[in-house]
Write a structure and sequence with these properties.
The complex is a heterodimer of chains A (994) and B (141).
Chain A: H1 16-24, H2 40-51, E1 56-60, E2 65-68, H3 89-92, H4 97-110, E3 114-124, E4 129-142, E5 148-157, H5 159-178, H6 184-196, E6 205-210, E7 216-223, E8 235-237, H7 245-254, E9 258-260, H8 263-267, E10 282-287, E11 297-302, H9 311-350, H10 355-361, E12 365-369, E13 375-378, H11 380-386, H12 390-393, H13 407-420, E14 424-431, E15 437-448, E16 454-463, H14 465-486, E17 490-496, E18 501-505, H15 507-513, H16 517-520, H17 525-528, H18 530-534, H19 537-547, E19 551-562, E20 565-579, E21 585-594, H20 596-616, E22 622-627, E23 632-635, H21 637-643, H22 653-658, H23 662-675, E24 683-690, E25 699-709, E26 715-724, H24 726-795, H25 803-831, E27 837-840, H26 841-851, H27 853-859, E28 862-865, E29 870-873, H28 875-891, E30 898-907, E31 921-928, H29 961-971, E32 975-981, E33 985-993
Parallel strand pairs in A: 28-30
Antiparallel strand pairs in A: 1-2, 1-5, 3-4, 4-5, 6-7, 6-11, 7-8, 9-10, 10-11, 12-13, 12-16, 14-15, 15-16, 17-18, 17-21, 19-20, 20-21, 22-23, 22-26, 24-25, 25-26, 27-29, 30-31, 31-33, 32-33
Chain B: H1 2-7, E1 9-13, H2 17-30, E2 35-39, H3 42-51, E3 59-63, H4 71-80, E4 89-93, H5 98-106, E5 111-114, H6 119-140
Parallel strand pairs in B: 1-2, 1-3, 3-4, 4-5
Helix pairs in contact in B: 2-6
Classes of the chains: A alpha+beta (994), B alpha/beta (141).
Amino acid sequence: MNMNDSVFPDFFDRGGEMGKLIRDFNWADSPLGIPEKWPASIQTSIQLCLDSLFPMVIYVGPELRIIYNDAWRPTLGSTKHPHALGQPAKKVWPEIWSTIGPMLEQVMESGEPTYEKDHLLLLDRHGYLEETYWTYSYSPLRDERGKVSGVFAVVNDSTSEVINERHLRMLRDLGHEITDVKNIDEVYDKFLNVINQYKQDFPFSLLYRLRLDGTGANLIGSTGLDLNSRHIFDTLEFAEGQLGSRNFLKCVHTKKPVMVHDLRNRMGDMPTGIWNVHPEEAILVPITLPGAERPKVIFIAGVNPHRKLTPEYASFYELAADQIAREIVRIKTFDEAKVQALKIAKIHLVNEKNIRQMADSIPQMIWVTDPDGNAYFHNERWTIYTGVNASALINDGWLQVLHAEDLPAVKSKWQEAFVHKSVFETEYRLKGSDGIYRWFLARAVPALKEDGQIEKWYGTTTDIHEKRKLEEKLIEREFILRNLVDHSPSAITILSGPDLIIEQANIKFYELINKCAEEVIGKSALEVFPAIREKGLDKILFKVLNTGIPYINNEFEVQLDRYGKEGSAFFSYLYQPLHNAAGVIDKLMVVSTDITSHVQLRKSVEESGSRLRLAIESSRMGTWDYDPVHDKLELSDRAREIFGFDTVERIDMMTLYDSILGRDRSQVISSIQYALQLDSNGKLDLEFSIAPKSEAIGKVLKLNGKTFFDKKGNAYRFVGTVLDITEQKKFSEELESRIALRTQELKVANDELIQINTKLEKSNRELESFTYIASHDLQEPLRKILFFSDLIQQKSQSLNGMENYFNKISMSTQRMSDLITALLRYSTISNSHESSVPVDLNMVIAHIREDYEIMIQEKNAIIEFDHLPIVNGKEVQLFQLFANLISNGLKFSVKNPTITVRYRLVRIHDLENIYHTNHRAFHEITVSDDGIGFEPIYSDQIFAMFQRLHGRNEYPGMGLGLALCKKIVDNHEGFIRGTGKPGEGATFTVSLPV
Amino acid sequence: MNSLKNLTNCFLIDDDEDDFEIFKMALHEIDPTITLHYAFSGIEAMKKFDADHHLIPNYIFIDWNMPRMNGRQCLEEIRKTERLQNVPVYIYSTSSDPRAIDEIRKIGACDFIVKPSNISTLVDTLSRIFLIRKVKHIEKA
């Protein structure tokens, strides 16, 4: 198709019949307008829809006008296609609008997608409302402004799966419920119970037993009907021509099912079951016993108003009714055989002489043999049936009428009964006088003598030909059932016993596992499928077997070798326990349904959603779509604009690569090629520069993409967006360069600071070691001055009044020595590397009291102290600290001083002064005295070296005590503060970190 | 007691000549018969010990602060010489750092004598040292 001739986007050139219909549609006259103007998301999804083999439909615009693909067409049935195209959904689906309408509108309003599984919809697509089931998803389609402008739907018809599964389940329930029931009435009861649980197919039902005299029928039971309703007749009298009796009589006389198609005309409104509509049709099924001339029971069922009563559907009703016949025959046959054998034995006991006479009167073949099995008596019935005289039948004579094929079985059964003296029972064919063989059931009971030896065998032979024929019919029915199972879309297998032996399976199962019956039947499932154990499914199977609780897994991923191909498949599993006659669970039915297409469908929905999101995230974004299989690249108009291509230019990957600046090109190419490989995560996120030929300045682009891989792991689609981020990039680059500049400046300043700091530290260290060395070496000459002046004083007989001068030399030198000692101590503390240990301050104060005992006594001082904490610190230094503070208190006292040491724990923000510290809590110890105090303006000065506030003659001291205290507290990362008032005392507060 | 007195001979290692004079004065005051050997450095002291194998002083005093080989190194050298291993060694210094006392005990010195600022203090200190030793000697004998 030539694009220049049409207003249609190029993707409309595909899509089979619907593609053509969409092209030919007169969109210009439709409220939707021409497709070219439709939002990009709608265009993309129509493209997706037309290219897809999954049923898909798109609801466009506020009226939700529908556009669909070929795969979706059957959904419209025979009455709605093709005029549904472009019509509002409400007009196309008035019958289900109340259900899907609100859902669609919800998607339009909220933009939230929906997912429905096996959803019942009563669709009118063949002129009646049909029971249909659908698995579908609605996802929103947004336009460039982000507004929801349509709904994208992927749908799958699961009607036949749902209904088939239901029918199978019902037949299974029937088989399970009525087998091994002891009497016939119970069979009817249980049958009706099961029927009543399947109201979809049996809105109502009736069971009538025909009277033996043929005058009418009596009601056995019913389902779905009000017993007082006029539709229920307890009895039907054939003579009176009751309402509805014509079909009933037809059924009785033909012994064939009768379908009633005009039920409402004949009977009026019948019960609806679970539906809202009255059944239009009914079916009458005769239940006839083998050989009987007339049916025994008639089963009447109302037919599902939402299904057509096709022959296939009718056979389902017959199949249900057959279950009754089979059970009645089973119960009857065994009861009869039992009763008759007992009867004969009784007769023998009562009067042996009358045997012959009585035996002849019995409408059954009777025979008697000697202990070895030689027949010596046959009653009249034998002759009547075989046409052979009784005398010719004695001993082995009767074998002439026995079918040759049955002789070996008869012989072995006889041998067995003879050895065990037990009941002989076998089925064989006897030739009638007409030359035709019929089936008989032969039974013989041994009559024992008092010594336990066999005296005689009494035998009966009963015609079971009709029963055998019914059985054959049933086998045929079973075959149909079997067919139904075999053609079930699900794989079904029966596993038996704790070893999980595969007992039976359907065709689908063999297809699925790609093996034939011989390879798996009779083997353990665990052995055939090692994956069961590997995936831990064995535990689940055993649990079902043990608890009887069925297990359902709705979605299970398996790797499967199917049709010779390895691949991922999805299954739903049902493990159904099966009960044996004794009610014990001994088997499991495993139903596996291949839901791969469902899952793929869902994934396709997810995939389409993610594609669309990408496409419409921003109107500033361009979109691109690359088909790696055919090497086809499509760019949206915006993408072309970004790359600098004009709107008609043909672009392939090479053109695209060429536009990328050299330094980025190889990086882009390798990233894209990597994203197309399965081992990548399929995601692309790139930034690169291009030099568009139409523009002078280069651009920076951001490219995002996502690859979609098929089952084989090959990329089949690569879609994404492209955004021009030149401005953004410029801005952030500028920002970055400014930050870099600032960082550089800061770094330079910081480096300088570090250098200064290092220098400072070095000079500090030098100063301290200088102080140490200086003070140490200064001691030497001083000591000698002292020593020798002392020596002169001692040695000289007369100093001629010079003693006083020597004294002064001595005192000055001593003072200099003390100063140097103090300086030495100060410098030692700064140099100290003594490690921190827990120090009990109570012990420290106690030691100080001992050391200053004499001074305390002299001054008549009192030292009070709180209980003090244990702090982490350098013991010698802490001792020095408190010794200095306390001795200061003693020293600067007036008389009878009291020194108080108080303690409290404070948090950083409770400290009175603001300090820079990393510690959050402090031990705060205050040492207060009531001495001379000091002027508050000196509270900082007092901590300086050699700072004295008083003359040496008033108070002795070096002026280093508090400087030392400050140094010690600094060493402990704490704080010290002094407050005082002249004449009122001083308080020193030491804060040490906790 | 007299006989024991004669046995007393001391060895002082100190780079300070004044201190040697002071030390000599103090010893003379205690007992003029006490012999004092003298070295100005650790190296000189070791030379003297090597030269005279019969030289086993009763006491060795080492100045803590000496150039080149300091008091500690000197003490270590002395302890290497077998015949000097049991000689009591005292460190003689201006420093009275309490940590230094611990340290010198560890390396095998007996005690720490602070260089005094008058002669009587030194006389008292030395007398006490000699007395303790003598008492111990008598007890042993």
